[in-house]
Task: structure prediction
Amino acid sequence: MHGGGVLLSVCATACAAVIGVRQARKETREARESVWRAPTPGAGAAGGRAVFGAVALLALVPFLLVTLSHGYGAESRISAVPFREILDASAHADLDLSDVRAVNLVGNVLLLVPFGAAAAFLWSGRRRVLKTALAGAVFSLIVEVAQYVLSLGRVSSVDDVLLNTAGAALGAFLVRRWTGRTRARRLTLPRPSRAGGRT
Result:
């Protein structure tokens, strides 16, 4: 993990948040307008999915730059025992953000938060967090295998997959909470009376 990768991830998160806010405002405006005219089903949803699909791919750039760069080891290794590295790092009482182990733990989560936030918009329903987490897990597993096959001098760890998956799920969870509140506000939009008709 490198501090620059975390910074890139924060920037990607900010970009995803800005695009998400703009898209939510657009959909809210269209919801208000649809009160007065017949909506066009699927048009806005398809456009929104295309936007967030592109954002999800862009959000993977800092993740790939960090994870597929050459490490500090002489040869690649595999750590296949779940939670070994997480528990080892957590066992140190003096662990802080200046410790490379802390940066590794926090960074592996943060790097996939932007991806999770953007990818969550590609699905609807209550299982969007689960689907996003699975997508993050699959992608992270592919990257870990690539690290070993390409001999990048890194540790291909199952804990990295778990942390990346947690990051993707966290991003999707935040989106679900946010869109839930946006949907609740839409339900409170004023409706025209039948007698008044369109003005």
The longest strand covers residues 77-79. The two ends are 59 Å apart (CA to CA). The beta strands are 77-79, 155-157. The chain is about 65% helix and 5% strand.
